[in-house]
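REQUEST FORM: STRUCTURE PREDICTION
Request ID: SP-0412
Submitted by: Lab K.M.
Chain count: 1
Length (residues): 87
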Amino acid sequence: MKDPSLYVLKKIQLKETKIKQQLSAIKEAKIMSDLEEHPNVIKFYTSFVENDALHILMEYAPKGDLYKVSYNFFQMLIIINLINFRF
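STATUS: Completed
RESULT:
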């Protein structure tokens, strides 16, 4: 069950990043704000710029982001395959 009182504030320094990365961060916030609410998508609450940084307030994901979860999953598959290959 999701705890609605847990949030994540992603902070992206704009002043210290290249234009391409700045545009990517702004695009990320825009895409998240346009997404319909769905149980498999991290909920977006708001975004704002303060002190040369873009802040994106979103739902907390206790297992991390999709990259971390998929990376761990594929590492586990590799280990299982190595074990099965040896026997």
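NOTES: The radius of gyration is 17 Å.
Reviewed by: T.R.
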